[in-house]
Structure formats: structure tokens, C-alpha cells
């Protein structure tokens, strides 16, 4: 049987497109727009960035670029395990935070029924999905009080097994399962997605006999959606993970060229970089399809954690990084758009659009005597949301505001695979342009280390001492 993602014609039909017309002077004017010459003037820098990407890839440092190929080997195991557990569990709960959660949420929102957890028919026998991506005690307890533990499997996701939020959730849930169902049932109610060779979680998984899936050592959390971090929950929820990887592979093939004008990941990274250098440091992602709203959330971590850095590779203090902002069309036309239209010239708006929605809903006619309402009748909601995006795009352009559009022919696994991979490669390329390490997160680690020290983790006594000796707050400034 030939799958549709193996047909060249279908793949080309499903190719996502990047439209950057509204980043250039012809559309937004000379004051804010770029010229092709401006881009081409960076050619030496762009060539060096491409070469650095290729060298790092060959050296095994860019594991996310390998995933469309290497993860094919474990797809069968993930699918068979998900199918085996399908009738046994009604609830699938992810215990993870940041990169261990955001990709799964984005995939679920995009590819599953909008009310998946509430619609048994739409689930087709697959379990409901819950993602505990925060340690707010009220939310945590509320979910655990709601679920029947006997019908629930928990996927603990932490590469190091030292993530305080994830491991604290695991300790709580494991204790509840052991007390309610018995120690002998613990292993069957957990999956561990972690490092194969190092860290605390793999030790626990082996000790407990918990089923494990492994995160490649050269793939960081925010780049891990196409590893078992995202693929295992997707498989449990009936998402076609082969097609997801096929989409990523297709985008990898498209982006092999060093021609900036033919490489969407490189071109978008370059224009976003130029915009930041020109004082437009706010990178707004605004999907005009509800299913893609959580892609903006995932993108925020990818862009912020990768590019927000104090030092460059030479150790010089540079304090760089564009600020990612999430928005949603048409919702945020009624909240943020005023700022985007008439506020500071410090933003680039990226629209995410879809050509063909899964559903086609017609607006009924009515109230013919009220022209301000009756004109809507006979149109479709598909037309309405597309028109609103086009109108917002035109209004921004008329106001000389930089914007670009990424369009998906439809939202499916193949187009989502392309989208994730394009943004990941775009981020890596941008890191080269900024001359920073896009794959570490020292600022995040500092906050984690303070937490470890305050809570008494061995080896972090200095962090606790620093916290205990911090400056006292002025009570007069607390009113």
C-alpha cells in the first residue's frame, strides 16, 4: 500500500508556503521595508551560517535534523505499544513541562477534534489526553480527583530525570497509584520518556520495570517534539506519526539548499534577524486558525530560549534576542491589533493561515431589513476568517508594519511536520546570525538551580545560601 505522503504530487500539493512580500519596500515602504540588496549584502554571513549548520550536523550536534530519519526505526514500537494499551486505559496524562509538553499540546490542538476529550466518537477508542505542564496545586489536585487512576496511564517526560516540576508530579502520582491500586500495579500505569544512559528517571524506570522510550542525547527539550516526547502521546491519540515525520523530511529536503531565496527557514530567519537589528525586536505569531493557536505557544519557547542570550560565542556580553509574542486571529483583532497598527514600529507579525479548513460552515441569512447584519448571510465562516486575516494583513501593510504569512494547504500531519521542522531550522540558522549558542539555556538553569538549593537538593547549598542572604525588600514599597 502506498501512503499519500509517498506520492510526489500530493507532497507538492501539501507544501507549506512562506510569503515575505510585506517585509520589503515595495509593500511597506522605504522607512521600514527591506530591499533584496539588503539581504544579499549579508551573503558572506549567510554562507558562513549555512556552513556552520552543515558542519554541526555532520558532527552530530544538531540532532533535531536527524529525527525525520532516525525516528522511523521506533515508530512500529510506539504504535504497537499504544495499540496494546488502547482498550486498557481511558486517560493518557503527560507529566512534563516546557519542551516536554508544548509540542504535544500543539500537535493535539492542531490534529485532534477541537473537543477531543469530550467527544467519544471523535476519539475512536483512543484515550483522553491531559497535559500537567505546571505544578499549580489546585489544578494538579483537581485533575487527580477527576480521573479514575485504574483507567489512567501517566507518561513521565524528563531527559535528566531531575526536572523538579515533573519529578514532584511523578512522586505524587506514583504514591497515589501505589496506595489505591497496589505496588504491583505501578509499572503498568507509567511510561518513562527520558535519556537512555544517564539521569535519575532511567534509574527509576529500570528499578520499577516501567516501559521506556528514549530521547536522543543530541536533542534538547524545545527541539524534541519529533522524538518520543511528542510522538508517543501522538500515537496514543491516533495521530499519524509516520506522516508527521514524512512532512519534516520533506521540509528538510526543501531546506538543503544554501540559496537564501529558495530556503524558507533561512529566509525567514534572515528577515527576522534584520528586523531585530532595525529595532523591531517583537516577533508576533498570529495564527488565523484555532487549531494552530498552540503552535504559537510552542514557538515562543523555541525562539525565546534559543535566541535570548547574554553572551555570544566569543564570550562577549551582547544581551540579544527578539521577544516572541503569541496572538490569535480573529480573537486578537479585538485586543492587540490596535497596538500593532498604531503603536511602536517594533514588531514583525507572522500570520499562520490555512487554505482549506476541515469543515465548511455557511452563515444563514436573516434580518434582511438590517443591512449591518444581513450582508453576512450566504457567506461561510471560512470566508469570514480568511477575509479577516487578509484585511488585517492589508491594514498592517498600509500602516507600514512588517508582516509575513506562512500558509498551510490544510492542517494535517504532513503539513505540521513541515511547520515544526522549518521553525526549528530557522531558529538554528538565526543563532548563527547572532553568533550565539542557540542550544543552551543558562538563564533558565540559574532559576532552576536556585529552586534546587532552596528545596534542599544535595550539591546546591551555595544557591540556598545566596537565596537566604538576598537583599531584604523595602516594606514601604509593598502597599
UniProtKB/TrEMBL annotation:
A GO CC annotation given for this chain: cytosol
Main enzyme class: isomerase
Reaction(s) catalysed by this chain's protein: alpha-D-glucose 6-phosphate = beta-D-fructose 6-phosphate
EC number: 5.3.1.9
Active site: 305 (proton donor), 334, 448
An MF annotation (GO) of this entry: monosaccharide binding
InterPro entries the UniProt entry points to: G6P_Isomerase, Phosphoglucose_isomerase_CS, SIS_dom_sf, SIS_PGI_1, SIS_PGI_2
UniProt keywords, alphabetically: Cytoplasm, Gluconeogenesis, Glycolysis, Isomerase
Places the protein is found: Cytoplasm
Gene Ontology BP terms: gluconeogenesis; glucose 6-phosphate metabolic process; glycolytic process
Pathway membership: Carbohydrate degradation; glycolysis; D-glyceraldehyde 3-phosphate and glycerone phosphate from D-glucose: step 2/4; Carbohydrate biosynthesis; gluconeogenesis
One matching Pfam family: PGI
Record keyword Isomerase present: yes
Main location: cytoplasm
PROSITE patterns linked: P_GLUCOSE_ISOMERASE_1, P_GLUCOSE_ISOMERASE_2, P_GLUCOSE_ISOMERASE_3
HAMAP family according to UniProt: G6P_isomerase (MF_00473)
Membership in a protein family: Belongs to the GPI family.
Function: Catalyzes the reversible isomerization of glucose-6-phosphate to fructose-6-phosphate.
Protein name (database record): Glucose-6-phosphate isomerase
Gene (name only): pgi
Amino acid at each position: 500500500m502506498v501512503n499519500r505522503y509517498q506520492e510526489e504530487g500530493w507532497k507538492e500539493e501539501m507544501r507549506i508556503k512562506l510569503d515575505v512580500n510585506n517585509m520589503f519596500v515595495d509593500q511597506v515602504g522605504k522607512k521600514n521595508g527591506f530591499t533584496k540588496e539588503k539581504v544579499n549584502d549579508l551573503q558572506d554571513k549567510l554562507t558562513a551560517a549555512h556552513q556552520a549548520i552543515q558542519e554541526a550536523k555532520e558532527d552530530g550536534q544538531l540532532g533535531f535534523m536527524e529525527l525525520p530519519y532516525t525516528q522511523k526505526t521506533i515508530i512500529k514500537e510506539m504504535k504497537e505499544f499504544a495499540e496494546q494499551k488502547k482498550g486498557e486505559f481511558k486517560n493518557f496524562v503527560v507529566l512534563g513541562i516546557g519542551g516536554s509538553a508544548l509540542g504535544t499540546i500543539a500537535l493535539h490542538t492542531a490534529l485532534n477534534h477541537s473537543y477531543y476529550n469530550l467527544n467519544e466518537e471523535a476519539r475512536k477508542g483512543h484515550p483522553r489526553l491531559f497535559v500537567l505542564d505546571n505544578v499549580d496545586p489546585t489544578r494538579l489536585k483537581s485533575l487527580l480527583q477527576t480521573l479514575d487512576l485504574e483507567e489512567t496511564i501517566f507518561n513521565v517526560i524528563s531527559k535528566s530525570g531531575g526536572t523538579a516540576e515533573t519529578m514532584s508530579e511523578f512522586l505524587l502520582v506514583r504514591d497515589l497509584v501505589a496506595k489505591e491500586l497496589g505496588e504491583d500495579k505501578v509499572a503498568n500505569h507509567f511510561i518513562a520518556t527520558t535519556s537512555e544512559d544517564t539521569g535519575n528517571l532511567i534509574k527509576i524506570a529500570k528499578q520499577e520495570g516501567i516501559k521506556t522510550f528514549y530521547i536522543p542525547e543530541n536533542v534538547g527539550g524545545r527541539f524534541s517534539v519529533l522524538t518520543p516526547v511528542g510522538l508517543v502521546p501522538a500515537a496514543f491519540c491516533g495521530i499519524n506519526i509516520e506522516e508527521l515525520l514524512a512532512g519534516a523530511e520533506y521540509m528538510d529536503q526543501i531546506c538543503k539548499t544554501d540559496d537564501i531565496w529558495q530556503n524558507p527557514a533561512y529566509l525567514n530567519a534572515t528577515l527576522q534577524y534584520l528586523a531585530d537589528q532595525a529595532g523591531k525586536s517583537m516577533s508576533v505569531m498570529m495564527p488565523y486558525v484555532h487549531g494552530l493557536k498552540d503552535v504559537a505557544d510552542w514557538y515562543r519557547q523555541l525562539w525565546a530560549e534559543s535566541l535570548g542570550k547574554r553572551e555570544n560565542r566569543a564570550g562577549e556580553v551582547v544581551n540579544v534576542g527578539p521577544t516572541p509574542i503569541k496572538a490569535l486571529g480573529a480573537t486578537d483583532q479585538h485586543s492587540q491589533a490596535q497596538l500593532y497598527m498604531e503603536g511602536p514600529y517594533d514588531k514583525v507579525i507572522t500570520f499562520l493561515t490555512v487554505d482549506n479548513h476541515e469543515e465548511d460552515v455557511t452563515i444563514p441569512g436573516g434580518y434582511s431589513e438590517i443591512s449591518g447584519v444581513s450582508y453576512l448571510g450566504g457567506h461561510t465562516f471560512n470566508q469570514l476568517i480568511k477575509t479577516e486575516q487578509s484585511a488585517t494583513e492589508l491594514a498592517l501593510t498600509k500602516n507600514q508594519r512588517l508582516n509575513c504569512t506562512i500558509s498551510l494547504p490544510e492542517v494535517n500531519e504532513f503539513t505540521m511536520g513541515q511547520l515544526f521542522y522549518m521553525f526549528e531550522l530557522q531558529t538554528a540558522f538565526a543563532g548563527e546570525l547572532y553568533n550565539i549558542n542557540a542550544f543552551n539555556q543558562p538563564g533558565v538553569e540559574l532559576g532552576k538551580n536556585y529552586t534546587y538549593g532552596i528545596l534542599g537538593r544535595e550539591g546546591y547549598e551555595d544557591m540556598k545560601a545566596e537565596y537566604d542572604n538576598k537583599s531584604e525588600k523595602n516594606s514601604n514599597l509593598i502597599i
